[in-house]
Amino acid sequence: MFLDLHRHLEGSHSPRALARVAREADLRTPFFFDAARGQFRSPEELATALTMAGPSDDASVFYRCIVLARQAYVSVEAIRTLAVAAFEEAAAETDGFELRISLFSMTRTLIENQGLEWRDVPPRAFSERYARPVLQAVLSARDEVHRRAAKPMVVRLGLSRTFESVPHYEAMGDVVLEHARELVGLDVLGIVPPPDTEPMPGALVALLARLRPSLPDLTVHAGEFAGHSSVDRVLELEPRGIGHGVRSLESPATLERLARDGVTLEVCPTSNRLLIPSALASLRAAHAGLEPLPALQRAHVHCVLGSDDPTPMGTSFPQELEVARSLGVDLSRLEADMKRRWREMTGVTL
Ligand SMILES: [Zn+2]
């Protein structure tokens, strides 16, 4: 039984689902609609722009794909349709999964796509008129698909470290608390421009402290674009998982601490290959050619596998499992770590 334990909703909108929503919402932007031919673009045409052509250390190549897909967030109904498709597709290719949502960026995008400036929307209206319906749409999509697919599926709430407005995040936090029982935990995601690409802003740490009594299971993206010290810093918050975290391999002390504290790394091989090719090459060189996942297993660090953002990365969970197999990963140990992590997150033994 293999679970996808690092997967983002915003990176899980397939070209097929996006083409369908564009048609249904009559979304005639140049990306979705070919005015010269007077017709909507096919999923095959959309796929080229939605998927990275190859590895790049420049994260904006990846974000461009995400921004294109987000053009379809034109209404709560459109978001719900996309979410249903994303849950269905994840259920079809896994034995169970966690999907994480970046509620702030989804909400902001919805507001912008409706022709408004999100900063002009007061925090309370931002959270009640927009963020709450978006969250409810995603959760009801999960429930609908779960009734049909009957596979384990949970939703994690992601908070971006770009943290653009404290009052808006605070108001959104109230909504998150009211839906805490329907969520599995919290995630911190996103990178910012150098020098510190994976910071933990003080106001974000304070918000986490307010939310964690209700949502104790924390994961943080770290040790991907920034080095092992970003993981060391985050460990002070006692997360249960680190998104990526592969650059922990730069420091024996960090590896030891992860192993000792039982913190799980969520490793996404294709994501690393595409987004951090230079860092990956250095890690490989320092570990006798071993890829991060087998090297981390060798260091006794608990690891699970994720597809991260299947659409921009042109991958799927079965493909990631195949990659793991080809890298010499101990699959029975990987499976045991996935079940261990699921138990930790949900209290359920699979
Ligand atoms: Zn991620």
Task: Describe this structure as you would to a colleague.
The chain has 350 residues and is an alpha/beta fold. It has one domain (15-346): TIM Barrel (Alpha-Beta Barrel). Helices cover 52% and strands 11% of the residues. The protein is built from 16 helices and 9 strands. Strands 3-4-5-6-7-8-9 form a 7-stranded parallel sheet. Helix 10 links the parallel strand 7 and strand 8 (264-267). Helix 1 runs antiparallel to helix 4 (76-93) and helix 4 (76-93) runs parallel beside helix 6 (123-149). The radius of gyration is 19 Å and the shape is globular. The termini are close together. The structure holds zinc ion. The site of zinc ion has 6 residues, from loops.
Rounded to an integer, what's the Rg over CA atoms? Answer: 19 Å
Report the helical percentage: 40-55%
User: What's the SSE pattern?
Assistant: HEEHHHEHHEHEHEHEHEHHHEHHH
Q: Which small-molecule species are bound to the chains here? A: zinc ion
Strand order, sheet with most strands: 3-4-5-6-7-8-9
Write the CATH fold name. TIM Barrel
- Poorly predicted regions are none
- Which descriptor suits the 3D outline? globular
Task: Quote the distance from N terminus to C terminus.
Answer: 9 Å
The computed structural class is: alpha/beta
- Please give the count of helices: 16
By CATH's scheme, which homologous superfamily applies? Metal-dependent hydrolases
Total beta strands: 9
Q: How many domains make up the coordinates?
A: 1
Mean pLDDT: 97
Named CATH architecture: Alpha-Beta Barrel
CATH class: Alpha Beta
